[in-house]
Design brief:
74 residues; alpha/beta; three-stranded parallel sheet; 2 helices; 3 strands; transmembrane; Glyco_transf_92; EC 2.4.1.-; transferase; glycosyltransferase activity
Length: 74
């Protein structure tokens, strides 16, 4: 059985890498087999974490680009 999760875009140089690691592993324990994530901006640490999970075949990271003047519009 496969369970996929689609996650809202990362914004404002998202930097909660420790929380994200815990969230990934909890969801994997619950049976999630793949994560689809969107990136507008994230920190270097989160980028490394996502790259690790991508290399394991667990994450697809997609660009998130909207024609916005300011992030406040989000």
């Amino acid at each position: 059985e496969t369970v996929h999760v689609c996650v809202k875009p990362f914004h404002y140089s998202y930097a909660r890498d420790e929380w994200l690691l815990e969230w990934f592993e909890m969801n994997r324990l619950l049976g999630v087999t793949h994560f689809y994530m969107y990136n507008e901006s994230l920190s270097t640490a989160v980028g490394c974490l996502l790259e690790h999970y991508r290399e394991l075949g667990l994450v697809t990271l997609l660009p998130w680009r909207l024609p916005l003047v300011s992030k406040v519009e989000i």
